[in-house]
Amino acid sequence: MKRNKTLVFTLTLLVLALMVFSCSKKTTEPEIQTVATPTFTPPAGTYTSVQYVTISSATSGATIRYTTNGTEPTESSPQYTTPIVVNASVTLKAKAFRNGWNPSPVASASYNVSLMVGIAGGPYTMGDIRGVGYYWEHPSHPVTVNSFYISKSLVTQGEYQAIMGINPASGYGVGANYPVYNVSWYSALKYSNLRSMAEGLTPVYSIAGSTNPADWGVVPYAENATWDAVISNWNANGYRLPTEAEWELAARGGSNTPDYLYSGSDDIDAVAWYWGNNTPQGTKPVATKAPNSLGLYDMSGNILEWSWDWYDSAYYDTSPTDNPKGPDSGTHRSLRGGGWDYDAIDCRVSSRDFAKQWEISTGIGFRVVRSAL
Hints:
paralog of FGE (formylglycine-generating enzyme), four-stranded mixed sheet
């Protein structure tokens, strides 16, 4: 009897040991982990300049796949490797994968990128009509311009680098959403044609018989007769610099009513970065002051803007009324809008300035337009 009890006790211990071993084995088996959900930088939202969206996952070694057509990403979707250029309204979706792991949940971000504003053409009065301008803003005179599109913001450093492969800005505000500066008029021509070609548009500018900047050679750092003889195809649908008349109509909000001193207001602090409110000194990110009535930013202050026109202080005495495009020749190109290092009087909508077409400056940049055909 005692031997049977001992056997039962031994069997009981054996069963208990097996149960403990079984439970221990179950708790030490690794669970399949799930890849971290991707995140987008900058976040979803509405923007007035091209965005360069980066996608990341907190899971080391994960491969990110993405789509731009609203479908869920799969392992055969495009692989994210470099920032995605977003220059139109789009919804990005991303999913991260790693061998031996569960895929991440799908992440989604919608971007509303509106870069251009349509300006209805028509007549307006150009020049100083408030009686506070310089003689080169007189006489005020009637002009009529055709309809066109103009960029909401100055060309940014991010936009410029994406097209040109370099960022010339240094020391006076650097970042993807800061306006580009240290850009000559010649460089603005090259950018315009390259961007047109990148977006499948017809380039506007022709130099030495070619619209392809690859044929133009190095951008000149001094006056260059070949580049000065550039031909503008006004019937092309690509990007170009605005004429002075187009720029001023846009800065005025499309008409002379109301007749603001600055683009969008008589209160310069509301709409412009200029010498009086710009601390520390230098450019500021685009679209950080209020826009004018057309939704255009920084047309007063922040940075001077190249126009197409040759500059002539007496041009308004003889300017044609129909789509004026400046004198046929000259020694300087016109600048508009004032800048971060300018006094308030020089940031008015009718104010004019000039520079050599090969010059660069920490206070000079540009915005682009397209003809409405």
